[in-house]
Amino acid sequence: MLKLGCAAERGFDFIVGLFLLVIGLLFTIVSFTILPVVGLVVALPILAGAFKFFSGFKGQSCFIS
Prior knowledge:
The protein is an all-alpha fold. Helices cover 75% and strands 0% of the residues.
């Protein structure tokens, strides 16, 4: 069973990753419709940050001892 700290950390990472994914997708849509270069330059780092949070490093509380 997951420890409480691990569950909280995974929940936080999921929420932040989901938020960044939504923002990144919005900027991607804007980059294709309104600002072709600027929107894509902003969207790519945001999407990379979202995927980092989805598959990021889990702290010591998530390891089985």
